[in-house]
Every structure is written in structure tokens, then in C-alpha cells.
């Protein structure tokens, strides 16, 4: 039933007079939720990321090391996507902290034979050593990231997300952020909840959460589409 303007209470009269503004505010609120609650769209340039031809020079080596460390269902395309992210397949790539195809820091390279003795004498500039080290280190990190017992199981997407974040920023930081997640009452077995609990510098946290997202959601699908062995995990 229709009601005259004069029959409305003060709040109703205000809404009636400002109906356009109210609707606009509602739209803006909805847009804000969509922007914060849903995954951000992948830019067209990212969707078109090609698989560099130079990667074929290392494919056999990656397949061999992946099988050695992960078995017959080894995530070959995922490891290739990680190398793409780390160095763009440039064996002489260098940053302020890391070196070579798999971008190991000198400290991690020197320590790695303690948990991966088969990699041999550390040499991040040697592509063969880098690929041996990357596959073994990722298998070791994957084994260290265990589900917290208080909650349900951990999806393989979360498992790989956390292992990749550990490679990029350190296993210790991930463990501290999972504990912070648990203390806050959120799910420390879910990558989405863990991302919300930062215990490191803001810039480092932003880089660290973006690292597995690009590998798993942008680069790995490109390598799978190009025929590299494996299957999507997220």
C-alpha cells in the first residue's frame, strides 16, 4: 500500500527525500565488499605471460629432480613456474640478497646440504646445482608445513601456498603467522585466514603473500597449458 510523504516518520521522510543518495551509498558499500572479499582479477598482461623458450633447456633436469623428490606425480609445472618467478630463467640473475636460477641467498645455499646432502657443494650460479637445490628444498619445506591438530585438515592448495611462502620469506615467519592466526581464533590451516595475520614488515608481507599467488594462479597454468607435467593445485 502506498503512503503519503506526510505519513512517514522522520527517518522515513529523510530516506524518501534522499533516496538517490541512499541507493548510491548502498552501491558503493557493495562495491567495497566485492573488492575486499573476492580475489582480485588477474590483469590481462598477466594472463598472457608466455613460457620462455629458454625454459626448454632446463625441462629435463627439472623433471628428473622433481621425480626424485616428489615421486611419479611430481609438480613439474609448479617448480618451473617458481623458477620463472624467481629469475625468469636467467642463471646469472642477481639481487641484493640472492643469486642464480633459483635465487638462493648465500646463507641458505651454505646451510642447505645439512637437510639436502645430495645437492652437493653449494653453487647458486650453477644451473644444475640450483635446480637440484630448488626441488629438494621445496620438498623439505612441504614436509615441514604440517596441519595444526586443533582444526580440520589442510588443503593441498594451502599446503603449497605455505611451502612457497616459506621458500620466499622463511619458514620461521610462516610458523609465527600461523600461531598468530590460531591465537586470534582463525583457521591456521587455511591460507586465506593466515594472510590476514601479519607479524613482519608490511612490504615484506605484501611481497610474500603475492609470491605463491602468482606462481599457483598465473604461472603454473601457463606451464600446464604448454604441456609441462603436473596438475593445478589451486
Map the helices and strands.
Layout: H1 10-17, H2 19-37, H3 44-47, H4 59-70, H5 76-87, H6 106-111, H7 127-144, H8 156-169, H9 171-183, H10 191-195, H11 202-225
Domain Transglycosylase SLT: 78-184
InterPro entries: Lysozyme-like_dom_sf, Transglycosylase_SLT_dom_1
Pfam family, one: SLT
What does this structure look like?
The protein has helices at residues 10-17, 19-37, 44-47, 59-70, 76-87, 106-111, 127-144, 156-169, 171-183, 191-195, 202-225. The protein has 234 residues and is an all-alpha fold. The chain is globular. The protein folds into two domains: 5-37; 44-225, Lysozyme. It is built from eleven helices and no strands.
Keywords:
234 residues; mainly alpha; Lysozyme; 2 domains; 58% helix; disordered N terminus
CATH topology name of the largest domain, in short, is Lysozyme
Strand content: under 5%
Helix fraction, binned, reads: 55-70%
Average of pLDDT: 84
- Give me the Rg, rounded: 24 Å
Number of helices: 11
List unreliable stretches of 5+ residues.
1-8, 19-45
Report the strand count: 0
Largest sheet: none
Question: At the first level of CATH, what is the class of the largest domain?
Answer: Mainly Alpha
Classify the oligomer. single chain
* Terminal residue distance: 51 Å
* Global geometry: globular
CATH architecture of the largest domain: Orthogonal Bundle
What class, by secondary structure content?
mainly alpha
Pfam family, one: SLT
Organism: Luteimonas soli
InterPro entries: Lysozyme-like_dom_sf (IPR023346), Transglycosylase_SLT_dom_1 (IPR008258)
Protein name: Transglycosylase SLT domain-containing protein
